[in-house]
Write a structure and sequence with these properties.
single chain, alpha+beta, Aspartate Aminotransferase, domain 1, four-stranded antiparallel β-sheet, 4 helices, 4 strands, globular
């Protein structure tokens, strides 16, 4: 393979795409992660949260009013997302997150939002 040394290391790790090689399941896993991110984004939007942009990777960005209270409420429910600004959060899916985990997380977010309104 011709290219920078870093490209050679990636080829050694993931396989050379020109010969059909990739790390076992790597492409499928990325597709799984991205599908879970879309599932999460859809669920958050259905709960009335603003999700933007539409996820193209395994990261979901969303906005929440009363972010400090929301953060406290979701942490109390063992759900971890990263605040990235005053009202914006980032959630990330990965290979250890299943569709059932996304559904469970959505229930926790729903509970957290309900707790804020009471």
């Amino acid at each position: 393979m011709i290219g920078p040394h870093e490209d050679h290391r990636l080829t050694q790790r993931y396989g050379d795409p020109s010969d059909g090689g990739d790390a076992p399941g790597h492409v499928e896993q990325l597709a799984h992660d991205h599908a879970n991110a879309r599932r999460l984004a859809t669920g958050l939007a259905e709960l009335g949260l603003s999700v933007a942009p539409e996820p193209e990777t395994n990261m979901v960005l969303f906005d929440v009013d009363h972010a400090a209270e929301f953060l406290q409420a979701i942490y109390a429910r063992n759900l971890w997302v990263n605040p990235i600004s005053e009202h914006r959060f980032r959630a990330v899916t990965h290979r250890d997150v299943s569709a059932a985990d996304i559904d469970d997380a959505m229930e926790r977010v729903r509970d957290a939002l309900d707790a804020q309104h009471h």
